[in-house]
Each structure stands twice: as C-alpha cells, then as structure tokens.
Amino acid sequence: MKEFDAFLAKIEQPDQKKRVTDVLSWVNETYPELERVIKWNQPMFTDHGTFIIGFSVSKKHFAISPESVTLKLFSQDIEKTGYSFTENIIRINWDQPVDYDLLKKMIDFNIADKAEFTQFWR
Predict the structure, then answer these.
(1) Is the pLDDT of residue 76 over 90?
(2) What is the SS3 assignment for the chain?
(3) Does a structural domain hold residue 47?
(4) Are 78 and 90 in contact (CB under 8 A)?
(5) Which CATH number belongs to the domain containing residue 71 in this structure?
(6) Residue 77 pLDDT greater than 80, yes or no
(7) What total of structural domains would you count in the chain?
(8) Which domain holds residue 48?
(9) What residues contact residue 25 under an 8 Å CB cut-off, 6+ apart?
(10) Is residue 79 assigned to a domain?
(11) Residue 121 is assigned to a structural domain of this protein
C-alpha cells in the first residue's frame, strides 16, 4: 500500500492514522485486484480505470465515498449503523465502529455494477 503512504503520513493523530490504515488495509486485502490510487488528495480504489470507492479524513470523522448511486441503494443500511451521510459521502466518527459488512456490500455492488463501465465516474 505504498501508494497511500504520503496520505497516511499527513494524519497527525496516531489512533486516527491506525484506524484509516486498518480500513485501507482491509480493502486492499479483501480486494487485491483493485488498483490503489491517490486522486484529489484522497486514497481511492479503482477497477479497470473506474472509481469503486474513496476515503478522506477530517478532524471529527473519516469519510467513505462510494458514489451517490451506491449511497442511495444502501441508505437504509447506512441509517441502521448510525453514521451520518450526505448524497456523496458517509461520515464515520472516530469513535464509531466500522461496519465492514456494509463496506463489503457497497464495494461488491460497485464492482459488479461498473463491470462494463468505461468512465471514471458514473
């Protein structure tokens, strides 16, 4: 995951850095076929040049960006976790657990749904 080293180095809080590293490592290990890239200063995973999922950090949370189509599809599942979300991102407060089952469902959906997709974004 050397592609993400510079991004992770900018996270000052050690516990937050570990948390983001753990999530990125989980995606990397669960989906080794996905490409790791940094775009717009954010770590992202792509498949055949199309966006699958991205991550960002802020003072109060880290965010997952699976694209608005995916957020709409899984909005009820997201609500059940207690995460706040917008049309484009899911916010996971630093003290909230990561729902890896939900993360897997969203990534699996994006990979399948975008299998024949030829652009970066939907």
Answers:
(1) yes
(2) CHHHHHHHHCCCCHHHHHHHHHHHHHHHHHCCCCEEEEECCEEEEEECCEEEEEEEECCCEEEEECCHHHHHHCHHHHHHHCCEECCCCEEEECCCCCCHHHHHHHHHHHHHHCCCCCCCCC
(3) yes
(4) yes
(5) 3.90.1150.200
(6) yes
(7) 1
(8) 2-113
(9) 1
(10) yes
(11) no
